[in-house]
Design a protein that fits this description.
Layout (H helix, E strand, L loop, with lengths): L1 H10 L9 H11 L5 E5 L5 H8 L3 E6 L2 H10 L3 E5 L13 E7 L8 H11 E12 L4 H5 L14 H10 L2 E9 L2 E8 L1
Parallel strand pairs: 1-2, 1-4, 2-3, 4-5
Antiparallel strand pairs: 5-7, 6-7
Length: 189
């Protein structure tokens, strides 16, 4: 799978802007307290890490694609970036993060609950997970043919996203739909 992830990032133009960047950035920055330690899961080229660092957060970004990590290291001062294994522990210490951000990440993950458990491991007790995923619904399987070339391996409804978060032990779940995506807030118990 890593060769595939690398090929995806090699095809992304250097000046590409994350989808719905302004709206997702506003959600993220409104939810991160000053001087928080933030884990950017699936940090990609570091676009969100750059914004977090500029707001005063201490940021560690992790991604499974070496190309993404290298781009982030070249383009973002004030944050640290680490290569993460696709199916292993996140390269971050226990109880390090006050906030974890997983923006448009969970839909790409085979073992979502496993990743969420890892995120809980690195969050302090009472830490917050902030996540966005494309919003789908029951209509997807009834009216659409799934694209065999797409890189999404999971499709979430509000109910299924809440269920995954609860299964991983998150509490105080808040999942809202806005403009084709779900915005989730959850607390690490």
């Amino acid at each position: 799978m890593s060769a595939y992830r690398e090929a995806v990032w090699q095809a992304v133009p250097d000046d590409a802007m994350p989808e719905a960047f302004a709206e997702r950035r506003a959600f993220l920055l409104a939810s991160v307290p000053p001087h928080a330690r933030v884990l950017d899961v699936g940090s990609g080229d570091g676009s969100f890490a750059l914004e977090l660092a500029a707001s005063g957060a201490r940021v560690i970004g992790v991604d499974v694609a070496r190309e993404a990590v290298e781009r982030a290291r070249r383009g973002v001062a004030g944050a640290e970036f680490r290569l993460a294994p696709e199916d292993g522990p996140l390269p971050v210490e226990d109880d390090w993060a006050d906030v974890a951000w997983a923006g448009e990440v969970l839909e790409h993950v085979v073992d979502v609950v496993g990743l969420l458990l890892e995120i809980r491991r690195v969050l302090v007790s009472g830490g917050r997970l902030l996540a966005t995923v494309p919003a789908t619904g029951p209509w997807l399987t009834r009216t659409s043919t799934l694209d065999p070339f797409a890189d999404h391996v999971r499709f979430f409804t509000r109910r299924s996203l809440r269920a995954m978060l609860a299964e991983a032990g998150f509490t105080d779940l808040d999942v809202r739909r806005r403009r084709g995506r779900f915005y989730a807030r959850a607390v690490s118990a």
